[in-house]
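WARN retry 2 of 3 for item q-0093 after timeout on previous attempt; input resubmitted unchanged.
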Amino acid sequence: MQICKPVAALALLVFAGGAGAAGADVPTKSSPPVKIGEVAARYPSGSITTVARATAALADAKVERLLIEGRFVSDQRACYQIFFVNHCLEQVGENRRQALALLRPVEIEAGHTQRAISATDRDAAIAQRVREEALRAPQRAQSEKDYRNKQAARKAAPPPPTPDPQVVARSEAEFARRQAAHAAKLEQLTRQDAIKQEEAPAHIAAFKKKQRDTLTHQQDLARRKSEKMAREAQEAAQKDAQRKQQEQALQKAMKE
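OK item q-0093 returned
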């Protein structure tokens, strides 16, 4: 069975380790972009000594692992298009295993560096807390000592004197007298308030009557004043008319 030239060329490409796929670039946060087989060269053994470099190595390794798996799937599809399928699949699997074998030490070293530095930072933080506790220990011990001394002094102090029964009796009697006086005053105020409420309608009626009487008186005064002014005006008019008549009679007599 003959193999067509394009398929045979594809098979040779697969047997060569997927050289076409190996050169594919995937943009990542790292610089330059990651290619298959470059992570191991970029991070040789012993070069990952900081958390930042370990983080970058793991990120690049993750990208390369995705590239390896993507090439593996692509190469598997290509194998099913040629005659020697099984041999092709074995070669593709071996390429994947070798690529991952180069990548795994970088991932292990980066993870170990992260854990080691985290442990170192944690140990440093614990040591700092121990030093701070040691610095605060004398002050805390002094505070505890002062508290114990106050407690001991309080227990050793003599009990308070017993009050005089006569003084207590007088105080209680005075308190009872004040309470009774206060209650009597409240009762008196309550009675006065009740009386005021009973008398309120009569006071209101008297006040309204007074207002009506005042209004009537004011109206009567105004009426009387108006009548007086009218009479005075009428009398003045009559006197003026009489004066004019007398003047006319006098002028008439003088002419005769």
